[in-house]
Amino acid sequence: MNTLLKHTLTASILSTMMAGTAFAAPSEAPPAFVKKVADGLITRLKADHAKLQNNPAAVKTIVRQNLDPYIDSQAFTRIVMGTYATNQYSSAAQRAQFERNFRATLIENYGSAFAKFSNQTYSMRPYKASNSKNPVVTIDFHNNGEKIPVSFQLADKGSQWKIRNINVSGIDLGLQFRNQFAATVKRNGGNIDKAIANFKPDADAALDKKK
User: Fold this and answer.
1) Average pLDDT, the chain
2) Average pLDDT over residues 153-159
3) Which of 16, 38, 123, 125 has CB 3.0 to 4.6 Å from 138, enough for a Cys bridge?
4) Given a cut of 90, is residue 84 above it in pLDDT?
5) Do 138 and 149 meet the contact criterion of CB atoms below 8 Å apart?
6) Which of 107, 118, 4, 10 is nearest to 62 (CA)?
7) In the predicted model, what is the mean pLDDT of residues 43-67?
C-alpha cells in the first residue's frame, strides 16, 4: 500500500467519526448514523479543501472539535492499553493521561491526511440488524480503483452511538495499537508513565501488517 493511499485511507477512517453537532441516539439505525457523519464530513472536506491544504492548524482544529463527541475514548483506551488498563498495572490518573495523549496524537498524526482529501467515494455494505450493543457497520471506500473495507464497531451508550474500534481490510486497529503500546512499555523498562508519554500510535505500521 503506497504512502498516498495510506494517507487517504486514514483520512477516510477518521472521516466516519466526525461531522454534525448533535449526538445520534441508539434508536437511530447504526448504518444511518455512520452514513450521516461520513456524508457530513466529506461535504465539509470538499468545501474547505483549499483552505485545509494551506492551513494545517485549521485541519487539526476541525478534527479536535468534531472527533471527540463520536469516540468512546474510555473503551478505546481499555482496548489499546490491554492488560495495562487494569489496576494492577496503572492508576485511574495514568489511564486518563493515556486517553488524553492518545486522542491528541491521533489529531497530530492524521491532521495532514485530511488536507489531501480529494474525490474519494464510498458505498455502504448491507447491514444485518442484531440485538448487540456493539453493532458493526462496514463501508467500502473507493480510491483510484481500489476498494478498501472499513468496519466500525459502535457502542450503545444509552443515549447515543459512539465508535469504540475500527477494522481496516481485516486489520483490527485497536489490537494493533495494543501491540504497539505493549512494545512501548517494554522499551521503557515497564515504566507506565514513560510509556504513556512516549506512545505514538502508528496506523500506517498497523495496516502494513496485511502485507
Assistant:
1) 79
2) 86
3) 125
4) yes
5) yes
6) 107
7) 72
Give 102 or 19, the one with higher predicted confidence. 102
The partner residues of 138 in beta bridges, in order of sequence, read 151
Query: 2 pLDDT exceeds 80?
Result: no
**pLDDT level of residue 19 (50, 70, 90 thresholds):** very low
Q: Which of 141, 138, 136 is nearest to 164 (CA)?
A: 136
- The domain ranges of the chain are 3-210
All three cell numbers of 14: 477518521
The partner residues of 150 in beta bridges, in order of sequence, read: 139, 168
Cα distance between the two ends of the chain: 8
Q: What is the pTM of this model?
A: 0.75
179: helix, coil or strand?
A: helix
Q: How far apart are CA 144 and CA 194, in angstroms?
A: 41
Q: What are the φ and ψ backbone dihedral angles of 152, each rounded to 5 degrees?
A: -115, 120
- Determine the residue type at 44: R
* C-alpha to C-alpha distance for 140 and 192, rounded to whole angstroms: 37
Looking up cell 493511499 gives 5
Q: What kind of fold does domain 3-210 have according to CATH?
A: Nuclear Transport Factor 2; Chain: A, (3.10.450)
Q: Which residue type, as a one-letter code, is found at position 127?
A: Y
Report the alpha-carbon angle 118-19-98, nearest 5: 100
